[in-house]
């Protein structure tokens, strides 16, 4: 676990990206983004093993993770089909009508992710994969050092992300899960189930910040 002071000091890594972070659409509060980045920074595994993010949206969390990955010389693979999760669809709480492609009629955040990565100088670090997480996992056959799960929060989707990607995580690697809420009033409970599943399977807590939980694979 990192104390508040450590995380505050660490925020200076993002001082030149403050405006970009403020202007980027997304669902990653600064304190959680900084904690996410700090946890990747403390991941001891060889930088030849990539970090993988499931659920990038417009790239907010990718800016935090990518900044550290670049410092480490590690690739960050950002996986998202870019058509939005259930809660991003019309009529749901987190729908943004400006993100609907007028031709396809579907949500499309791909160009925003690409823009965020370019503006943050991370094009040489981030590999953008526009695909369903489960489908991409079925053809991706390398070990990874760090896994951030922040994709679909429905039961089947989130568990499929876990089942498809956690086995690729190398021993000693880190698993981060977003939107873990102990209180059902604060948010859906599926990420909490993933967090508990990981602990049951022997993962060890590394960090908790807001709704972010980071664990180490034994
Ligand atoms: N990490 C982002 C927020 C992610 S929102 C931030 O920091 O702001 C969740 C994202 O998961 C959406 O962009 C959605 O398109 C993506 N997603 C949902 N289900 C998915 C699936 N099956 N495969 C790939 N991406 C998915
Ligand atoms: Mg989230």
Shape label: globular
- Secondary structure tally: strands: 7
- The CA-CA distance between the termini, in Å, is 16 Å
Secondary-structure-derived class: alpha/beta
Largest sheet properties: 7 strands, mixed
Labels describing this entry:
single chain; 218 residues; alpha/beta; 7-stranded mixed sheet; 8 helices; 7 strands; globular; binds S-adenosyl-L-homocysteine; binds magnesium ion
Structure description:
It is a single chain. This protein has 218 residues and is an alpha/beta fold. The protein has eight helices and seven strands, in the order H-H-H-E-H-E-H-E-H-E-H-E-H-E-E. A seven-stranded mixed sheet has the order 3-2-1-4-5-7-6, sandwiched between helices. Helix 6 runs parallel beside helix 7. The relative contact order is 0.17. The chain binds S-adenosyl-L-homocysteine and magnesium ion. Magnesium ion binds next to loops.
């Amino acid at each position: 676990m990192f104390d508040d002071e450590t995380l505050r000091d660490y925020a200076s890594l993002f001082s030149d990206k403050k405006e970009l972070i403020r202007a980027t659409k997304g669902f990653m509060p600064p304190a959680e983004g900084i904690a996410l980045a700090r946890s990747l920074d403390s991941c001891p595994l060889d930088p030849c093993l990539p970090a993988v993010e499931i659920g990038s949206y417009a790239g907010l969390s990718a800016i935090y993770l990518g900044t550290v990955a670049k410092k480490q010389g590690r690739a960050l693979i950002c996986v998202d089909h870019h058509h939005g999760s259930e809660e991003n669809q019309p009529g749901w709480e987190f729908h943004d009508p400006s993100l609907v492609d007028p031709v396809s009629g579907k949500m499309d955040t791909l160009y925003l992710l690409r823009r965020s990565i370019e503006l943050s100088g991370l094009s040489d670090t981030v590999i953008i994969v526009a695909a369903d997480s489960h489908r991409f996992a079925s053809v991706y056959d390398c070990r990874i050092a760090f896994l951030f799960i922040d994709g679909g929060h429905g039961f089947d989707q989130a568990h499929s992300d876990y089942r498809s990607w956690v086995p690729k995580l190398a021993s000693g690697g880190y698993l981060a899960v977003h939107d873990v809420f102990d209180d059902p009033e604060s948010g859906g409970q599926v990420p909490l189930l993933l967090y508990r599943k990981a602990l049951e399977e022997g993962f060890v807590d590394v960090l908790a910040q807001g709704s972010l939980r980071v664990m180490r694979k034994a």
